Amino acid sequence: MSAPALLAALPLLVGVAAGALGHLPLRLAFVVLAAAWLAAALSLFTGRGRVLTAAAACGCLSAGVAIGAGAARQADNPPLLAWFRDAAPSRPIRLTGVLREDAGVTAFGVALTIDARQLVDQDRSAGTTGGVRVAVVGALAAAAARQWTQGRTVTLVTLLREPVDYRDPGVASDRERLARQGIALIGTVKSAALVTLVARGSMLEEAASALRAHVRDVTRIAVGRWSPRAAGVVTAILIGDRSGLDPEDERRLQEAGTYHVIAISGGNIALLTTLLVVIGRALRLSPRATAAGAIVFLAFYGYAAGLAASVLRATLAGIIYLAARLLDHRGPALNALAVAAAIAAAAAPLSILDPGFALSYAATVAIVVAATRVTPRRERIRGEPRWRRVGRTLLLALRALGAATLCAEVALAPVGARLFGRISVAGLVLNFVAIPLMSVIQVAGLAAVVCARASASAAMACGWVANVSTSALIRSAGLVDIAPWLVLDVPPPAMWLILSWYAAWGALLWRRALRPRARNRVTAPAVVAIAASALLMVAAPPFVRGSRVPPPLPGWTRVVFIDVGQGDATLVWPAGPEPMLPLLVDAGGAPGGSFDVGRRVTVPVLWALGVRRLGSIVLTHGDPDHVGGAAAVLHALQPAQICEGVPVPDHDLMVRLHASAAARGVPWRELRAGQTVDAGTTAIHVLNPPEPDWERRKVRNDDSVVLDLRLGDVEIVLPGDIGKDVERTISSSLGRGLLVIVKAPHHGSAGSSSPGLIEATHPAAVIFSAGRRNPFGHPAPAIVDRYRAAGARIFRTDEDGAIFLDTDGQKAVLWTWGGRREVLSTGREPRR
Question: Is the N or the C terminus of the chain less surrounded, counting Cβ atoms within 10 Å?
Answer without folding.
Answer: C
